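Hey all, quick one. A colleague (J.T.) asked me to put the zinc ion job into the tracker so the inputs and the structure tokens live in one place instead of scattered across chat threads. No bug as far as I know, just bookkeeping. Sequence used:
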Amino acid sequence: MTFTSLASSSKGNSYVVSDGETTLLLDCGLTIKELQKRLGYNQAGITACLVSHEHNDHAKAVSQLLKRGVPVYMSEGTAVSHKEDMSLAKIVKAGVSFEIGKFWIYPFNVFHNTAEPLGWLIHDKRTDETLLFAIDTANMNVIAKNLDYIAIECNFQSELLEESYTPTLLTERIKKSHFELEKLITYLKKLDLSSVKKIWLMHLSSHHTNEMQILKRFSEEFPCINVEICPE
Ligand SMILES: [Zn+2]
Ligand SMILES: [Zn+2]
């Protein structure tokens, strides 16, 4: 199982998970043109797209993908809240697993300021590897076992958000809808990380994070795990 980041910030998010045969696009928050470019003009290689929620930086290209015949999976709440017609989308529900190729996918609820945002556990039945993917969430309550990979939001550092000239209302909104570094570390410490080979940190706010400080905190807390920050 491979994981690749195509784009990771409030300007746009899209990630690729592949077993070499089945290729999943996780979120498509770029214009279709930009998405094509970052996919190396190989959109035909995409088996399906999973969309976490309706915000533009995650779902911008959905209708274009649907028009091109790519199956797109999302929750009912996301479909209803999307500003475009989502009648062709495949509706999935937290707690109800489904399969695409040799991937077993388990959607779970995350905590964001949208109708029905989802995160995904993606299990490769051939290699027995599992990825936990969660983006745009203020916290997590999923305790997953036997994880090999984690791709998770690390949006801001509390002290940097407080120090910045961010309007109070926006500060409150960020706190309620995005993952803070120390909160994320507290969550990860609840998991059994003994088989985790790599953690990708996604959706960093350029104003409210310091990459060096984040990597230092991770190396202090999880010295044996390879941690990578997904670039914009
Ligand atoms: Zn976002
Ligand atoms: Zn969002």
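Adding what we noticed when we looked at it: Residues 24 and 73 are 10 Å apart (CA to CA). Helices lie at 32-38, 56-59, 62-67, 76-81, 158-163, 168-177, 181-190, 211-221.
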